[in-house]
Amino acid sequence: MLPSDQHSPTDDDFERLEERLLRTVDAQQSHRRHRHRAVLAASAVLLVAGGSATAWVTRATPELRTLSAYCYGDASTDSAFTQAGSPSAPVGTADPVDAAVANCAAVWNIDYFTPMSGIAASAAPQAESADTGLLHSYAVPDLLACQRPDGVLAVFPVWAGNPDGDDPDAFCAAVGLQPPYRP
Fold this sequence. Notes:
Layout: H1 11-58, H2 62-67, E1 68-72, E2 81-85, H3 96-109, E3 125-126, E4 137-138, E5 142-147, E6 153-158, H4 168-174
Parallel strand pairs: 1-6
Antiparallel strand pairs: 1-2, 3-4, 5-6
């Protein structure tokens, strides 16, 4: 025989308990969803802010983009390079692409890049030029400019036999850069 206890829960008590339990679970899930949304929103804001800060820091100044160039010793961004430019030139007076090629031609003219091998080894000193007045001037290869991700122009030599030498877009794509913007 079962004891008859008056304090035993009734069906109404079970329904109220179930209802309260379901409300508690819903509240916890709602709180968790709001917390996840807040974390997601904060993460998105930090990601955008970090990307913007990185772009701001890695983007070259307007002066650097228009007055200087990276001169490479071979048709590769892995080759030796130097930065050349004219800090005293007024901004906007010349086409930046032509100025970059001229700056890098001057670098090649003074034999900054020691000829490596193969085609580059044929860059022998030339006789004194009446135009430049330089005692020793070296052969300057054909040069092509491409644009680096930071906005500064990169100038590369185009050796004879380069299949992309006549197409600046294909040449820049081959070295992993974009063709320069010409206004």
